[in-house]
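Exercise 7. Predict the joint structure of the components listed below.
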Amino acid sequence: MHYQTEAWGAYMAPRTAGTDPLERVERLAAENAVVIFSISSCCMCHAVKRLFCGMGVNPTVYELDEDPRGKEMEKALVRLLGSSQAVPAVFIGGKLIGPMDRVMASHINGSLVPLLKEAGALWL
Amino acid sequence: MASNNNTRRISEVGLSDSEPSTQHLVYGVLHGISPPSSNFIDQHGSTAYDFGELEEALIPKVLQNDGDRKPLLGIHPPPTLEIFPSWPVRYQPTPRAHSHQSGESTTDSGSAQNTGSQLEPESPVSSSQKSQPNRRSSDPSLHQKQERSDMAPAPSDSTAHHHNQSKTLVDKRGASSSTERVGSKTLDAKTLRRLAQNREAAKKSRLRKKAYVQQLESSKIKLTQLEQDLQRARAQGLFIAGAGGGSNVSSGAAIFDMEHARWIEENQRHMAELRAGLNAHLPDTDLRLILDGCLGHYDEIFRLKGIAAKADVFHVFSGLWLTPAERCFLWMGGFKPSELLKILVPQLEPLTEQQFIGICNLQQSSQQAEEALSQGLEALHQSLADTVVGGGSLGDPPNHHVTNYMAHMAIALARLANLESFVRQADNLRQQTLHQLRRILTVRQAVRCFLAIGEYYSRLRALSSLWASRPRESMITYGNSSQLTSSLQMIQQQPPHQNHFSTF
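Solution:
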């Protein structure tokens, strides 16, 4: 699991201020195989992180409470997910999987692992 | 007129052929007659009674085997033997009938009497003239009216009518066609009286039985109505009585407990349907329908749990709605999916290779998900503990850093609210596991699988009941370990079939 913060943004492609938060979310999500938007104090986010680590996956985590534009991204996620809970939000291969219950459901019905393999997050 | 009143009372009582008044009759007999009959004689010198008749009726049959009337003055035999509506007292009218017969009387009574006289059974003449059935079917009320009007006339005629009265006494209750009764009238009288007594007793018990049955039926109706009302009230959430009793049970919890109880009943019904379908070798299409209903029913309880968790998360989370034995296995407000799978797999064999792999994957993924949720909950515990402690050093009293304390309490409250999402995710996991199980298995296997699940939990519930009603003085005394080991050894040494632990 590795945490991306704004500090690294300086080494990446220049971004105009005021980028649409949703765009930012989607861009960030596309950068890695498994991307999790989280809040450091959220215990369910902790659970979803543990889930992927337990499977041997190395997800990229963005803690929105540690991001200056986190609040806007949170709002964007709320709109995207269609629920009041912005986090945890999981993207695999740039595609939105959803909140915790969708992740769990897809894991139980066996669709999560193939997705991970497809995205290159799992090699077994 | 006291005598008349008395007699009227008694005869009225005696008149009604039907029923409950036989009780009255007894009382009437006891109260009206039990004062020494001499009273009557004294009071109403010309009363219609003949004391002889009276005590003839009273005297137990066993004593009077010769059939002769033996006036035994002053004797008051046990009243129980003569529960006999047809008292001699009825014979008030007799004289009048007699007087009719003799051509007198019409002056004494109204037209009722006249009409009555036709029905009048007491008069020996009239009785001999008419058939029994008539008498029997004659309207009691008419009798009564007749009796009343009969009371009016002066009883002056009564004095000399012993014979008539005895005759009429006999006739009154003669069910058989004993209209002519000239010879051994006393003997017949006794027999007839006995017969009549039996009839009366039989009728009384028939009526009692009828009344009892009616009572039962009305009680039954009342009971079903009450049950319906109760169900309706419960459905509207008006019934508030927590599972554990106690005033601190919230209504959300109580409602869920009730809903859960109902769900279990419904589930038994589904199980019965499944079992019946399996035994009847229904085609897969039919079984699939039943199975879908069953699965939908599981979805229903998860939905209800979700609502209940919003209302009272601790009630759901702590499994207070479960029986003790089920609660023993509690994980995050319900059963642990991987544990259930472990129990089920041996019951599902034979499985194809693909199915077996599918089940194994399911077991593994549920285990991983459970682990993730448990770790998330651990994180919640930690942060909650930190927040509570952060309200101020535990060595200081709460009011030492009031603002800090309250702020941290507020944060702690917010953290606690997360519990609901954990319960929800856990239920989601359970629901998904059941659905996946259904997908992996064939219809028949799935039927057996869900039957096994139902049976397993009903056994756990039975275990809870057994536990609750177990004898308190057990052979194992927990205070003494040596005793414990010796007790266990005793159990072990017993042949297996005698071991009471193997009963279920």
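Discussion. The mean pLDDT of chain B is 71.
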